[in-house]
Design a protein that fits this description.
alpha/beta
């Protein structure tokens, strides 16, 4: 094993410390959200983390010129709980006033800010650091012309938002889907900052994509579009600057076409400018499986720690039928769990006795190899039932674990109520922000473990980071090595979330709050130490 790989394994096998200030008092209930500070704190905490003094002082001052005791004419309370709430509202209002039409971006800003009240109350410089993060470092919006098979020129919109390089090069996927617009990319990019911060790797946050829809397009049309998209994107990326990957609508095929065009534009330069490449030409083993497998590793650790339970034997409802959902089911089967559902835009497929390895192979063939609908699977599996225009959460009986792996806001308050009634023990997000805020509150108040996307589905970007490391060394690790590293990273991510939740919100179950705090502190410390950038 090379020295580089040995050092990387040592780093990942050690618990990652979370930058933090003095711990506030405990919460009696998680739903209280902000009742964490019973007495005012000094303006500057003197605690240290990871061997560094993280007091907010020195050359970089995030405070504005105006008096910080007031915000838009409203006096900030001396009560730390009220003050925290006021600064949360102020942070969300910044996003609302700047980008009122970007609803998904405002939703993710609200979700993250709502966890940071204890920090905002401790020192308002944390509020101003968060406000600083709301503005991307760079945002690229470009035209993507391409020619269809009939010889007609078409034009799509392309985007790349480079949100934060505080912790490393920009990192985040490319999404090709008709729903893509600037607000979508900003929501995904902002989430990516915090997700990447949890991975224990040096990765910044970014995201990109286009409103191009690969469905119904020929192979030649997809190739021509990918080449045009990369021609527009190439000036803004590089192996030490910004390394995109895949997302919805962008798989190995699209990555291949874009990588080939990047080489062509750069005189054949073979460098790790994209991740998700095929293993034969610079990709990493386990990258296709990483998000789904990592999701299950995270769920396994959370159930063990918080419920003293195992996944083995548990009935698991999965939404979606793409890459993440398929490989999550594969890992569930390895651990003895019982996946019972998948879904697509047409409805939900339900196997009452669970998917076996053979049935999962059939589903993968239907969805990935043939690109067909779940109705095709139902026609070939007599034990299954198909429920049109229905999500899995109310279809399957006795759901013990739910894994939403389809799209944002797919699990709402009614779904959460159904899961609580079914006796669900944990909901772990495989998609980005698939659970609505109202549903999260219902789940948490009922004592259901909630694993937020930025933590639970970070396996994909983690292995992308490992792919970058392999490219830098011009080497390739075995699938077994990468899987061990992935499992170690997901355990570390869980521990960061649980420990921060316990420290700042009084109980380990608050994984959403813990994930946001752990990630925010790491990025805020980097911003402070790197100057006014």
């Amino acid at each position: 094993m090379s020295t580089f790989k040995l050092l990387l394994l040592i780093v990942m096998s050690s618990a990652v410390g979370v930058s933090s200030f003095s711990a506030p008092c405990s919460l009696p209930r998680l739903s209280t959200k902000l009742a964490v500070l019973n007495s005012p704190k000094p303006a500057h905490s003197t605690s240290k983390a990871a061997g560094r003094d993280l007091r907010f002082k020195g050359a970089v001052n995030f405070r504005p010129v105006e008096e910080t005791s007031y915000f838009e004419g409203v006096a900030l309370s001396d009560d730390p709980v009220v003050r925290g709430r006021q600064l949360i509202d102020a942070a969300v209002n910044v996003a609302r006033k700047r980008d009122p039409e970007q609803k998904l971006f405002i939703q993710t800003v609200t979700e993250i800010a709502s966890s940071l009240g204890p920090l905002f109350a401790e020192t308002d410089e944390y509020f101003f650091a968060f406000k600083h993060m709301l503005e991307p470092e760079q945002l690229h919006h470009f035209r993507v012309p391409w020619v269809d098979d009939q010889g007609r020129t078409r034009v799509q919109r392309g985007y790349r938002v480079q949100f934060s390089s505080a912790l490393g090069p920009y990192k985040g996927g490319l999404r090709f889907h008709p729903s893509v617009e600037l607000g979508t990319i900003k929501f995904l990019g902002f989430e990516q900052i915090f997700k990447n911060a949890l991975t224990t790797l040096n990765l910044g946050g970014g995201k990109g994509g286009s409103d191009f829809d690969p469905k119904g397009k020929s192979e030649a049309e997809i190739m021509r579009f990918c080449q045009s998209f990369m021609t527009a994107l190439a000036p803004y990326i590089g192996p030490n600057k910004d390394v995109p990957a895949g997302d919805i609508g962008v798989g190995g095929r699209e990555i291949g076409y874009m990588f080939g065009q990047y080489k062509r534009l750069n005189q054949g330069s073979f460098e790790g400018v994209l991740t998700g490449k095929a293993a034969d030409w610079g990709g990493s083993y386990v990258r296709p499986e990483a998000t789904g497998w990592g999701l299950v590793f995270f769920a396994q650790e959370a159930l063990k720690d918080l419920k003293s339970a195992k996944l083995s034997g548990k009935r698991c409802a999965i939404s979606g039928a793409g890459n993440v959902a398929q490989f999550a089911a594969q890992q569930l089967l390895k651990l003895g769990a019982v996946p019972v559902t998948f879904s697509d835009s047409g409805g939900t497929i339900y196997e009452p006795d669970g998917f076996t390895s053979e049935k999962l192979d059939l589903l993968m063939e239907v969805k990935s190899a043939r690109g067909a609908r779940l109705t095709d699977y139902a026609a070939r599996s007599p034990t299954s039932t198909f429920h049109p225009n229905t999500r899995p959460w109310s279809v399957a009986e006795g759901i013990e674990v739910a894994l939403p792996c389809a799209t944002q806001n797919e699990l709402d308050a009614d779904d959460a109520e159904a899961l609580v009634k079914a006796g669900c023990q944990g909901v772990f997000e495989g998609a980005n922000m698939p659970t609505t805020p109202e549903a999260v509150d219902i789940l948490e108040d009922a004592g259901v473990i909630f694993g937020p996307a930025k933590a639970a589905n970070a396996g994909g970007v983690a292995v992308s980071g490992l792919e970058m490391a392999q490219n830098a060394q011009m080497t390739q690790w075995t699938g077994e090595e990468v899987e061990r590293m992935l499992q170690r990273i997901m355990i570390d991510i869980y521990q960061q979330c649980a420990e921060s939740a316990e420290r700042y919100h009084g109980q380990r179950e608050g994984l959403k709050e813990g994930a946001n705090i752990a990630a925010f502190l790491k990025v805020a410390a980097a911003l402070r130490e790197q100057g006014a950038v």
